[in-house]
């Protein structure tokens, strides 16, 4: 593998880790009742999903044979950030006029 391609893949691998960590920390800091109010899975479920995502992002690489697990971890973290997080924020702020 050319050196430039190697470093590009390394940057992609490690850039995904803070995304997963952010999703886990955000899930950890939210109130448990907000998840049910937002009609989403429970807080322990999302903590498990995002913790598993961080684990997959740390243990596997996009460039190696574990790319499937790495991709699944990134998708799980992004689903939390894009779908669950906005609903939790909306529920905890209350209705806006």
TrEMBL record:
Keyword Transmembrane: yes or no? yes
Superkingdom in the source lineage = Bacteria
What are the record keywords, sorted? Membrane, Transmembrane, Transmembrane helix
Q: Which InterPro entries match?
A: DUF2516
Q: What name is this protein filed under?
A: DUF2516 family protein
User: Which organism is this entry from?
Assistant: Actinokineospora spheciospongiae
What transmembrane ranges does the database entry give? 6-29, 67-84
Q: Which Pfam families match?
A: DUF2516
């Amino acid at each position: 593998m050319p050196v430039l391609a190697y470093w590009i893949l390394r940057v992609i691998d490690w850039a995904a880790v803070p995304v997963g960590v952010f999703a886990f920390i955000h899930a950890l800091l939210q109130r448990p009742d907000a998840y049910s109010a937002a009609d989403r899975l429970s807080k322990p479920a999302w903590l498990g999903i995002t913790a598993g995502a961080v684990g997959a992002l740390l243990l596997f690489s996009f460039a190696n044979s574990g790319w499937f697990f790495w991709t699944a971890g990134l998708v799980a973290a992004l689903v939390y950030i894009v779908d669950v997080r906005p609903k939790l924020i909306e529920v905890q702020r209350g209705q806006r006029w």
